[in-house]
Give the backbone structure.
Amino acid sequence: MRRELVALLLPALAAGCAQVEMRGTGDLGVVIERAAGRVQVVDTTARASLGSVAGLGDLSHASVVYSRDARFAYVFGRDGALTKVDILQRRVAARTAQAGNSIGGAIVQDGTLVAAQNYEPGGVKVFRADTLELVADIPATYGVKGERSKVVGLADAPGNRLVFSLFDAGEIWIADLSDPRAPKIDRHRDVGRQPYDGLVTPDGRYYIAGLFGEDGLALLDLWHPEQGVRRILDGYGRGSEKLPVYKMPHLRGWAIAGEFAYLPAIGRHEVLVVDTRDWRMVARVPVAGQPVFVIARPDRRQVWVNFAFPDNALVEVIDTETRRVAHRLEPGKAVLHLEFTPRGEAVWISARDDDRVLVYDTTTLARVASLVVDSPSGIFFTSRAARIGF
Amino acid sequence: MASTTATGRRALHALAAVVALGVPLAVMAGQAGAPAASGAPDPSRQRELVRLLRQDCGSCHGMRLTGGLGPPLTPQALRDKPSDSLVATIVSGRAGTAMPPWRPFLSEAEAAWLVARLREGDPHAP
């Protein structure tokens, strides 16, 4: 009798203490306030901010992955701090200063491990997703002197594997974390000069690294890593001088529309369209500037593109049927990121220098909401929790 | 476009001022922490330059200039690097690296002003 009473009262007391509203997280997300070191928790149904969580450090170039229950956001800060944020209670659940300079992270297939990719010291560190206890340290060493490379393009792949690229070494590594405390590394050398970012396809089969130092991309078939890295889109610039690059494109969140992948061309005002069945280029779409993010609406009918400085006030919408730019928007000053709601009826766009996040209806292209956010950069919705490579 | 032209005009003014004073750019840039030289940008341009530094240089060097894909730009990191070569790197870029030329957006005098601010640490506008 008494035990029953306790069982009844406990959840009520716990909820009362933390004052957590009973609700799901499927329509929630976070927006990075890069200068303030804070995230705002947002509701994509109400199109409103629910509150913020502060004290997260240097969040310039911060990125986020979600726990598989979509309650916790793992925020990777530039200063090497990894913070686990409870978006329901809007508080820090765990935090670790794990490196001097970091650029992002990933969560493995079964959700038990998160990993940070670091510039300084160069490598990958793996943590328990629940406590953030360090599980494995994978230094990105290369060359005869054992130098350490900056790590970029970290992504999760099926089989609790992580795949990442070594910017300084020109290598791609696959780390198999079946035994988390003893990662098995499969190392691919000479993949091309200066891989600057990478991605895993939505089906988890292919890893692609963009190359800054040459015209082309490196492709690895994760079903057959023994076949090694293949070069695709070799010489897409046709040997012509590329334009100065004022901001590196980002490949994660890339666009696959049907059989076709839409990729940012580096140093060119172009989006490249590639047939994923044979990895040949089928079209080049002229756009307003150098693309940074090229992202498909979830139904694949549109691909949205933002641009590097100095064209970063613009966003263009490519119609995937005609493969041409169908619309151009000017959402605000310094557009840094965009994120679709889970089924794509709306897109949220951060305009850093206007201190605004703008929400657009993707059918009518009408602006339907505007939120005040301090220097917003990345926008991350919880629907990422269920996606391979996010 | 209009802003580029305006920048160009400002650059000309700044250069003209330097030439009139007969001060070589490298020497001016070397005067770390010195009071603003007569070639210094006006306050509103200084704010633009600091914003450019933190936000756009910051894409690679970090908003707090502690490094990223590009090296850190802290006073300690720059200590052994001569100002004229830093100015040249800013305006002309560095071949074989990801550093692009910023000449379309700032003049040598403005780059020298930024280098002096970087040497002081924690660059900020007036």
Summary: Residues 2-21 of chain B form the longest helix (20 residues). Confidence is low (pLDDT under 50) at residues 1-37 of chain B. DSSP finds six helices and no strands in chain B.
